[in-house]
């Protein structure tokens, strides 16, 4: 793995960013200091730190007893349930490396993650109205390295999570500079890329985030977004909250109907949402019978929150807004809790660390003056230097001197604050879910009656952006409903099924008779929106 050059690593250690802490040690520290404090709450369970630690230790022994070996990768797919925590802390304790699938992922994505990581096992929950056992059956044929499938609840022919318990025989704590897990990228081209995060770098990111966001053992953090997403995991999210000894409350769904009663019951103090959900919450708050007064801070991120919407947070929800602009590859920016209103409303914050190196450059890679929009590049103590096992993505996504090309177009403002202006690439940000145009096009073109297809983003008042598929059919009888049904049969996450399908006879080409797909998408979009 390409990692931080030694002179950078030495500096990050000397400055106290990388402290040699590991995930197992973090949990053990809390379990020893405050064994009876509540750590994790879901619909059916309420675990103290002592309980979570005990379960993680038992699972670690159980996983190793299956024959899994420290260093092997394990794809985990859980909805917002407490089992997610006993499983991932069990894996950490056993020296195994979780690969985080989202609960919304289907066979196409999970198979890709399993193959790319050469996973030895797949672990999933039995919940959320989807049968992960059926997925596991199909997955075994597609991922030849898989030796074990572990399922929470009714496991049928697979190994039951509840049976994966044991005692003793555990290795020492992992090396803090080792990869702790593989997070997945929003994915600007093709399928998700795997992001190797080390104990040292990730723990730094949420420990420092705790300081910025005021997270302490008094914090009650509501996981409204999917538990495996990087934002609710680390900014400062559930991991930051557990680090501080606070309480993590898991919402089975992010809607106001589900989340508001939980806020009132558990006295939630902090949560993070994507902009479309923030809009829903603001609409629902004024008439709600539930007491939301414990909520001190609402974080919004994952996609651009417009100033118009940002302004309404305090009047409707009665709390402080914090904008969060982050990425699973590393760099995270926050508006600070005491920033003046115009900063909080009009910017996406500034980096966590004084040693985050941020460059804003033009198309040729030359730095642009403050206030001018350009490509954002980032390097630092918690920003990766390379994806896992992906030389071609690495060649595209990192500069020779190790800056990550975020693909975001930003303006840098006085004080180092960033304003996000858009994306350079072809990815669509649908309510915070990142969709790769290329990946969806590949699926469409697999239909025997589709000659060619191009996915473009269309502005949407609720979702921010929605997807529109321009499709050249081979037969006139092809129906929109069939295209959508076909996409669902492909086994992809529902959020990737095009929102809209438009049939066209041909894609207009340039005089040269050729267009890059990127230009094609731009032109289709411009034509569709009436040349805007
Ligand atoms: C505009 N675009 C944003 C914002 C992310 C914290 C918060 C979010 C993520 C995340 C994360 C944005 N305004 N406020 O990992 O720790 C878009 C950018 C960025 C991409 C990363 C975290 N916040 N974005 O969303 O890996 O385009 O991480 O490059 O899913 O989301 O997506 P992802």
UniProtKB/TrEMBL annotation:
GO terms for molecular function: acid-thiol ligase activity. Residues 439-514 form the AMP-binding enzyme C-terminal domain. Pfam families: AMP-binding, AMP-binding_C. It comes from the Bacteria. Keywords: Ligase. Its EC number is 6.3.2.-. This is 2,3-dihydroxybenzoate-AMP ligase. The gene is dhbE_1.
């Amino acid at each position: 793995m390409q990692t931080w050059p030694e002179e950078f690593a030495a500096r990050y250690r000397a400055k106290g960013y990388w402290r040699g802490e590991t995930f197992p040690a973090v949990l053990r520290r809390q379990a020893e200091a405050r064994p009876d404090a509540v750590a994790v709450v879901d619909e059916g369970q309420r675990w103290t730190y002592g309980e979570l630690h005990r379960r993680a230790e038992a699972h670690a022994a159980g996983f190793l007893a299956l024959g899994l070996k420290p260093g092997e990768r394990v794809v985990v797919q859980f909805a917002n349930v407490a089992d997610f925590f006993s499983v991932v802390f069990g894996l950490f304790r056993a020296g195994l490396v979780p690969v985080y699938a989202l609960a919304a992922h289907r066979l196409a994505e999970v198979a890709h993650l399993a193959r790319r990581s050469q996973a030895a096992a797949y672990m999933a929950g039995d919940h959320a109205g989807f049968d992960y056992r059926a997925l596991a059956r199909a997955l075994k044929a597609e991922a030849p390295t898989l030796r074990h499938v572990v399922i929470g609840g009714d496991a049928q022919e697979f190994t039951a999570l509840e049976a994966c318990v044991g005692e003793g025989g555990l290795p020492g704590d992992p090396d803090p500079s080792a990869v702790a897990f593989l997070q997945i990228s929003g994915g600007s081209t093709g399928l998700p890329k795997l992001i190797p995060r080390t104990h040292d770098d990730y723990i730094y990111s949420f420990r420092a985030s705790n300081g910025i966001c005021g997270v302490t053992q008094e914090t009650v953090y509501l996981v409204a977004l999917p538990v495996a997403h990087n934002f609710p995991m680390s900014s400062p999210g559930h991991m930051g909250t557990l680090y501080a000894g606070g309480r993590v409350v898991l919402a089975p769904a992010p809607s106001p109907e589900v989340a508001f009663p939980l806020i009132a019951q558990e006295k939630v103090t902090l949560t993070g949402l994507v902009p479309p959900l923030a809009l829903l919450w603001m609409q629902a708050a004024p008439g709600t019978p539930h007491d939301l007064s414990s909520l001190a801070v609402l974080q919004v991120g994952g996609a651009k929150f417009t100033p118009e919407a940002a302004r309404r947070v305090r009047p409707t929800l009665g709390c402080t807004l914090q904008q969060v602009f982050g990425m699973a590859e590393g760099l995270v920016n926050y508006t600070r809790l005491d920033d003046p209103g115009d900063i909080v409303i009009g910017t996406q914050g500034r980096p966590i660390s004084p040693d985050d190196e941020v460059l804003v450059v033009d198309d040729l890679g030359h730095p642009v003056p403050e206030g001018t929009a350009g490509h954002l590049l980032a390097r630092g103590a918690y920003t990766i230097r390379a994806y896992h096992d992906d030389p071609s993505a690495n060649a595209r996504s990192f500069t020779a001197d190790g800056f990550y090309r975020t693909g975001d177009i930003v303006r840098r403002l006085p004080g180092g604050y960033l304003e996000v202006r858009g994306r350079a690439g072809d990815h669509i940000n649908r309510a915070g879910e990142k969709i790769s145009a290329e990946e969806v096009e590949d699926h469409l073109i697999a239909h025997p009656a589709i000659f060619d297809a191009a996915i473009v983003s269309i502005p949407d008042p609720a979702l921010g952006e929605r997807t529109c598929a321009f499709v050249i059919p081979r037969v006139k009888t092809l129906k929109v409903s069939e295209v959508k049904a076909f996409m669902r049969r492909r086994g992809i996450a529902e959020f990737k099924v095009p929102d809209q399908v438009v049939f066209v006879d041909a894609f207009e080409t340039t005089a040269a008779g050729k267009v890059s797909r990127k230009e094609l998408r731009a032109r289709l979009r411009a034509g569709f929106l009436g040349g805007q």
